[in-house]
Amino acid sequence: MRNHKNAMVALAFLTIASVLLAACGTQVVTQIVEVTKEVEVVQTQLVEATTVVEVEAASFTKPHPLLGDIRVRQGIAYCTNRPQLIASVYPFVDAEGQQKQLMDTNIPRASWAAYDGPEIQKYPFDATKGQALFDEAGWTLAEGATYRTNADGDEMNLKFTTTTAAFRQTWAAVFEKQMAACGLRIIRLHAPASWWFGSTTGLRHRDFELGAYAWVGETDPKGQTLYACNQINVPENGWAGQNYMGWCNQVASDAINAANNTLVREERIAHYKTFQIEFAKDMVSLPVFQRAEGNAASSNLVNFKPSATEYYTWNSYEWELADGGDTLVLALSQEPASMYSLIESAAVQRTVGWMIFDSSMSQYDWDFQPAAVAELSSVENGMIQINEVEVKEGDPVVDYSGTPTDSEGNLLTLTSGLKVKTSSGEDVEFSGGTVKMNQLVATYEFQPTLTWSDGEPVKKADFELAYKNDCDPASGAVDYSTCQSIQSVDFTSDNEYTVTYKPGYMNSLSFIPPIATYPSHQVLSDGRKLADVPTTEWSGLKEIAETPLGFGPYILTNWEKGVKLELTANPFYWRGENKVKNITILIVQDTQQAVAQLLSGDVDVIGSETLGAGAEVQTVIDAQAAGDPIQVLIEPSATWEHIDMNLFVP
Amino acid sequence: MTTSTMPRAIDLAAAEAMPEEVSQFRVILRRFLRHKLAVASLFVLAAIVLIAILAPVISPFDPTDIEVGNDFLAPGSVGRDGVRIHYLGTDTIGRDYWSRITYAARISLTVAVTAQVASVIIGILVGSISGYLGGTVDAVVMRGVEFMLTIPQLPLLLIISSLVIQNQEAIPVPEVLTNFMAWLLLIQPRDAVQVVLIIAILVSFGWLQDSRLMRGVVLSVKEQTFTEASRALGASDLRIILSHMIPNAIAPMIVSASLGLSGFIIYEAALSFLGLGIQDPTPTWGNMLSAAQSFMFQHPWLPLVSGTPIFLCSLAFNFVGDGVRDALDPRLKL
Amino acid sequence: MFNYLIRRLFQMAIVLFLSTMASYALLNLAPGGPLTFLTSVQRRMNQEDIARVRAYFELDLFLPVRFSRWLTGFPRGPITVGGQTYFADFVVGCRQPREVEIRYSDGRRELKTVGCREGQDVTLADLVDRPRSSKGIIFGDLGNSWQITRDRPVSAVVVSRLPRTLQLMMISLVLSIIIGIPIGVISAVRQYSAFDYTVTSMAFFGSSMPTFFFALLMILIFSITFKRMGWVYLPPGNAESVKDYVIPFIGAVDAGSLKDNILHLIMPVSVLTLFNVAGWSRYVRTSMLEVLRQDYVRTARAKGLIERVVIAKHALRNALIPFITLVVFSIPAAFGGAIITETVFNWPGMGRLYFDALGRTDYPVAMALLLITAVLTVVATLVCDVLYTVVDPRIRLS
Predict the structure, then answer these.
(1) Which residue, A269, B175, B221, C346, has most beta carbons within 10 Å?
(2) Using CB atoms and an 8 Å cut-off, which of residues 125-164 of chain B contact chain A?
């Protein structure tokens, strides 16, 4: 152990040396000239003989020498044998399962929005075609050479960045081979996730050529923040935005914006179709596969129904133990940081949260179902109304893409030059006078019998408190775009409220209640009422973070830090009594350890967030085959791996 | 490698040397041969080195050839061409395990030996200077070492990895060095940069232990009467260091180096585990073991096979070091 | 002696300060931080959102200012003397850094952060109503956690993990001493005997195996395989079970009982002990061999003392002197826990906490643990040096 310590220590030397080197290097250069906002080359007579100009950092404007060429991108796609990649990572999935994991567009096949028509350009493995495209792009294979070169003799190579995760190392190795077979050299970099997903490194600063990572697929296909033109992250917008490829295809951008700003499913399907055709054609991001994920549980557990798009605890109120037992043990790979949902959104928190708080709706099998809401609000049932309103200069609105703020975070009002969507569905630039826009008025109705776990019924003041707290900029939440899109809220009864959104806000997900509930009656240990506590203190409150009141099936009674969370059935649960009286959640960080505990009977359930998709899945499958009393459910997950191609360089 | 060839080297030199030295060498050799496990280990090491040298000849497959679908073949399975045999089976993407192990031997051994030799040299220099001069120099150096011991290591690794990733092209690694490594290890020069960097990383912490050890020896020898005697006779500082300090330090240094060698093989594995070591597809025992450990429960032979050479080498280095130590120490059981 | 101690204490303070500063800088300069996974889900964020989150974690303050606030709790705002405020406009941070692109004449381009965007400076006056500032480490406030127990005190987490770590580490420490010393002595006395060879092999075996590999192997054999075979098996991990269970031959075990705890301790303790015994017995053997050939031992033998007395009374005592260092130095390590062993066996100790804190970039927690280890290490060094003078009069402290 001590040796180990020394080891790392000495790394310090190297670091300091390289930091100094790096620092000195650039310092020398920047000191030469400091011209700001001028794109003019200044000649200098200094030793370095390099002239330097500093300009305000702006868009990535220089097309990538290789990836800027669509033929190279499509060539890469044709040279990729995706079934082989899947087979390398998931040997336990059969050929039929592999087909289910393949994707041709950004939308998993199981989703209602996936389009699979002939207009979608597909890239089945075809090395000849890929090589022909490379040739066409000017990258030819010299006699006897392994890698292609262009007319200048530059070797065709691309950096391929991804994380150090074992399964990525595996499929990246195969991918490297596949590209080499086509004459493209892949230089693999497996970076720590903290660098790759860091706030000032890796993806965020578009520091990659080919980059592989995963998007967590969601019930709703969304995609607006990933592919719209105004979501490209560049220095001038402070690197905000998730369009890491720098892809701006106006047709696709308009389609993805439109698809996310209407409540009519037919329209959404049509827009998504347009988008997917463009996405597949441009080949800016190669979908590799949907991950396969496993959930495992003791066969003693009845009604265990995990789903790709929902946390497996969503139906814990239905769970039952076949042997009539009353205690169930779950394993979680990570401890939730806090039960305060506003500031902690990790999957583990949501998994526990489902049991304590319930959720307004469940997202089983790629669609929404009502849970704590009485029914899903929709235009059809009249709970969502679309009113035409006349908007004049200075009125609060959201822009054509549904964004309530400008890139600097200021709330938008109707001013000349702002692009908005009119009630007839056109995008126009405002130039004075008035404009007719659509305004959503949505009513959300909750189950009338919701009762806090201390017996107090849920009431109007609870919703009011949530609106006040969660939309407070000091609350610590990350994303206020929904709050910022709300014009007014009318709390009509103890289980119902109506939200009037700003004109132009037509978000497809407006049927989801935007306002949560907090027990406004709760009295804290220091005698204050929760409703009176300033929002900045909330995240540190034991009553909010550790022993929260909820109206879900279970009550969190004891939380032994780093070890376990103990839950007991909520006697006031609105759906009636649970069959399983006690649930203990063990924190088991190591997946192999979790599997060992499942096999030894210490743990009854391992969800996909803990079991993952690695070698351990095979272990549980084998154990099941060997007769161990466990059930294993494997399915294509909503999370999909893909290779992004950076179209522009700084 | 160095340890295994040393007796031979001395042997050659001894043949032409004075009779007195010959007899002294014989004494040492005789003492070494009494340590049966050390002798056996020497053979094991020789075999491993031979395997490493002959890697291209004795491995039937290219170590980076992938055969998806032929994954996790059992040891002894016949390859896809129906002729060649996967002696140790295949890994998760159908690469021949035996071929990878043999090529990895070249890399892992080179990394460990180079790193150890460099660490010992730096350690001896720093330790003897610090210990011999004493006073302020000693205090500063030792507090410095102490200070470095309290710095966190993992975040350092992260920083380094990110620096390496961002500046892989900018870090000035002499081309001669990478080309030599690439030639020696049969890998691409681009991958050899990583090897050189890893060696540098290992050395940068490796010398700490050695310098402390050296300082300890110097301090104790300094107090001995024979040192005082030669100082009284007017011997210079350098001469005292060379003729008294260094010879006295050889035995503990060899023990430390032999333990260190196994340590370096294991650290290389740890670095690979953090995604910082030499990366796939370049095989090393370390990255093979850390990749195989997740298959522990289904294919236990994978971690066993990649763990065995680490274990064997480490064990052999330990025994040889033990034997050499016993043999070299002139006052032991005379 | 007194002067020496004063001087050493002073040096210790400097070393500690420097090491804390270095750790703090390194942690904060490393990629990662609480914003890392902010955009790993689809989410609309603008630069104001990013700036707000940075400010929430005080990342908008300059590093030295942050360090000073962490260490001492200052500055907390402008300095007020006699109703007059000074330095209210003093810039201590930047909400949104300005980035420029450097274009070289050879076509290379590079992005660099230089200075702050206009109007985005953070001044001392802005610090007044920051809710998250701690009182400062030197006043005993370890601050609030970023991730592990978000926004709640670090000290609570650390205290909750300490007992389990101490239990595990102390048991294995004691066992290692009890087993390691006799093995080392016997293999020195009977050099090259079958016992020596066996024990040496076992010792090297222990230090030649990567811990994670060995630990996993134990779980595979003693938990999974043994249970399947219907033999006596051991629980694979945790400190205690949740459910009562029955083990063949041992019988029913109540969850949370002493028996339960002991069963859970066996594997992690064995791994740690084997690792320690490996190194320590070698250490004892070496120094024992060293001592056995000293003149005074020969003299003792020549006087006709029984071999056992020679070894126990004369040789062993002296041989154990350097061993003290080793034991003293393993005490700070005991508080730090064993990262790999605790993780593989899911032992809720400090090592796992540290690993977790780094993995989730919870730097306040990581810093607290580093600080504790650094203080103990420095103290241990001093204790060792002083102990040396006590046991070996030839060494002088000056």
Answers:
(1) C346
(2) 148-149, 151-154, 156-163
- The count of residues in chain A is 650
**Integer Cα distance of A521 and A504 in angstroms:** 36
DSSP-assigned letter for residue B263: H
**Cβ atoms of C296 and C314 closer than 8 Å:** yes
ipTM of predicted complex = 0.87
Strand partners, A645: A210
Q: Which of C283, C260, C118, C102 is nearest to C188 (CA)?
A: C283
Distance, in Å, from the CA atom of A572 to the CA atom of A28, rounded to the nearest integer, reads 70
Sorted by where each begins, the domain ranges of chain C are 43-145, 155-391
Whether the upstream peptide bond of residue A473 has omega within 30° of 0, thus cis, is no
Angle at the Cα of C58 (from C55 to C62), degrees rounded to 5? 110
Q: How far apart are CA A239 and CA A205, in angstroms?
A: 7
Q: How far is A201 from chain C (nearest CA, A)?
A: 7
Are C212 and B319 inside 8 Å of each other by CB?
no
Query: Cβ contacts (< 8 Å) between B205 and chain A: which residues?
Result: 6-11
Contact (CB<8Å) A237/C46:
yes
- What residues contact residue C361 under an 8 Å CB cut-off, 6+ apart? A194, C32, C33, C34, C36, C146, C147
Tokens of C63: 């590093």
pLDDT, one tens digit per residue, over C135-178 is 888 888 898 998 898 889 999 999 999 999 999 999 999 999 99
Task: Determine the Cα–Cα distance for residues C287 and C322; give it in Å rounded to an integer.
Answer: 8
Residue B279 has its nearest CB partner, among A170, A177, A188, at A188
Strand partners, A188: A160
Which of C7-21, C183-197, C379-393 is predicted least confidently?
C379-393
Structure tokens at A599: 């096999």
Highest mean pLDDT among B201-210, B270-279, C39-48, C244-253: C244-253
Q: Which residue has the tokens 């900029």?
A: A473
Nearest CA to A276 among A249, A297, A298, A300? A249
pLDDT, one tens digit per residue, over B137-185 is 888 888 788 777 666 555 565 566 556 655 666 677 888 888 888 888 8
- The answer, yes or no, to whether residue B332 has pLDDT greater than 70, is no
Starting from the edge strand earliest in sequence, which strands make up the sheet with A434-445, in order? Answer: A384-392, A434-445, A496-501, A486-493
Judge: A10–B205 Cβ closer than 8 Å, yes or no. yes
C-alpha count within 13 angstroms, C-beta hemisphere, residue B99: 22
Map residue A644 onto helix, strand or coil: strand
Provide the pLDDT for residue B166.
Answer: 58
Q: Which of C36, C35, B171, C111 lies closest to A192, judged by CA?
A: C36
pLDDT, averaged across chain A: 88
Chains interfacing with A (3 or more CB pairs < 8 Å):
B, C
Strand partners, C104: A52
Give the CATH number of domain A292-370+537-636: 3.40.190.10
SS3 call for C95:
coil
Name the band, by pLDDT with cuts 50, 70 and 90, for residue A40. very low
Instruction: For residue A57, give both structure tokens.
Output: 């950092």
- Asked if A10 and B204 come within 8 Å (Cβ–Cβ), the reply is yes
Domains and their CATH numbers in chain B: 34-328 (1.10.3720.10)
Alpha helices in C30-60 (DSSP H): 47-56
Report helix, strand or coil for A391.
strand
pLDDT at B140: 85
Q: pLDDT digit string (tens) for A125-174?
A: 999 999 999 999 999 999 889 999 999 999 999 999 998 888 898 899 99
> What is the maximum span of chain C, computed from C-alpha positions, in angstroms?
89
Domain C155-391 coded CATH 1.20.5.110: no
